[in-house]
Amino acid sequence: MLDASGLDLLFNKARTPLRWTTRPVEEDLLRQMYDLVRMGPTSGNCSPARLVFITGSNGREKLRPALSAGNINRVMGAPVIAIVAHDPLFFEQLPVLSPGEDLRSWFAADVGLSEETAFRNGTLQGGYMIMAARALGLDVLPVSGFDQSMVEDAFLAEQGWRANFLLCLGYGDFTGLPERAPRLNFDQACRIVQ
C-alpha cells in the first residue's frame, strides 16, 4: 500500500495547473511514463491507446486551430501536449498481445464491439497516463475542448487513429491557484449492492 506521501502525490495534493513553468520535459521521462502506462490492465490485454507527443513549435501551430478559445493559452504553454488516441484496428495486435486466444476474430467480425472496446480501454489507458505522469513528478492538465476531426486530420489520419482527449504535461506554476473545487462524497456517488 502506498504511504500518505504517495497518495498525496497521486490524488490528495495533486492539482491541475492553469499555467506552466518553462522547465522542459525530457523525452526519457515520456518513455518512462509510457512504460508505466502499458503495464495497466486492459480487457484481453487489448492495449488500444496510441499517443502522440507534441513538443515543438511546428506541432503546436498545427494544433492551435483545433483548440477551443478558452484552452489556447493553457494548452499552448505546456511543455508537452499529448494526444490520447486509440487504434480502431487494435485487434490486429491481439495475436501478439494475447497469444493462444482467438480474440482477433471476435473484434474483426464486429465493428461495434471493436469500436466500443477501443474507446473504453483507450480511455482507461489515458487515466493510467495521468497517474503515471504524477508518479514521475509531472503535472497534468486533461483537455476535451478541441475539434476532434481537426486533430485527427492534422496528426492521426495516416495511422487511422481516433482522438479521445489531450493531456498537457509539464511542471505547473501554481501561484494564485484557487482552492480545490468540491468533490462528491461517497454517499452521493456510490452505492453498495449485496
From TrEMBL:
It holds the Pfam family Nitroreductase. InterPro entries: Nitroreductase, Nitroreductase-like, Nitroreductase_HadB/RutE. SUPFAM superfamilies: FMN-dependent nitroreductase-like. Its EC number is 1.1.1.298, 1.-.-.-. Residues 21-171 form the Nitroreductase domain. Keywords: Oxidoreductase. It is an enzyme of class 1 (oxidoreductase). GO terms for molecular function: 3-hydroxypropionate dehydrogenase (NADP+) activity. Coiled coil: none annotated. PANTHER family: MALONIC SEMIALDEHYDE REDUCTASE RUTE-RELATED. This is Malonic semialdehyde reductase. The lineage of its organism: Bacteria, Pseudomonadati, Pseudomonadota, Alphaproteobacteria, Acetobacterales.
